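Folding problem:
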Amino acid sequence: MADTILCFDIGGTTIRTATATEGAQPGKVARFDTPAGDHGAFLALISSIIDDLPERPAALAISLAGIVNPETGRLVVANIPAIHGTDLKADLEERTGLPVIIANDADCFAVSEAVFGAGRDHDIVFGVIFGTGVGGGLVSGKRLINRAGGFAGEWGHGPVVPLVVGERTIPHFACGCGLSGCVDTVAGGPGLQRLHAFLHGETRGAPAILSGWHAGEARAAQTVETCLQLLAGPLAMAINLTGATIVPAGGGLARDHALVAAIDDVVRPLTLAKPRHRLVVPATSGEEPGLAGAAAIGFQTLEIAADRA
């Protein structure tokens, strides 16, 4: 399997894995429970998956919901204590003897869209996530900007949300990152729920809010419209800063294509370019963007290493 990469999408409860050849989407996906609390068991599981392959792959490529500290190589992965604070790359390379490439899941999503999805015909692709949280990844020439890890593309964090929408004052809610006023606090699934509770004094999940919005319910419509106004300026600024000409949207909320279209409607007029084409669009790279993006990043990394050799 010299021309094959074994790729992983690692979450707090499930590890998804598949092999991929260069230029192609990953193959059949296998799923395993994540040994989230045991570092040794985590490494042993990855090793056993490799051992079960008919031939050894050229490398391992990993997508995970965390950040690689570019200075230390150590991971910040709050939902997987087994690998939080560890140098997983070094640990796995020592155990398996294979090159290991690790990237944030939003970064992998962005690369997947740049290589296989809505960004195929664009140079600068800014992939955004509207899921449990709000995140993003930035790609130029189909390659990540922050190849060594770090926080590029993380537009969901920073004290930038407007304090007033119309005549209504909106407080800066505290964010899990330690700041207040982040887009993440009002635009992901939990954020939409928080915003609805503030505006209307009732607890309602994001799917129910969106269903109400589609049905024309006044309270749900006010919540969604307020959310759109709160995120529009920060996202437009991020697009101006990056020069992105396409912004594929992924995550659970982005499966609602009407919501994605509404985001585009409020964001595009605030950008300097004001393109005529849709700017914020639904993702199209398939069901496994984490695996596909990890594989693409892996092959790019191997190519760079070969060129330097």
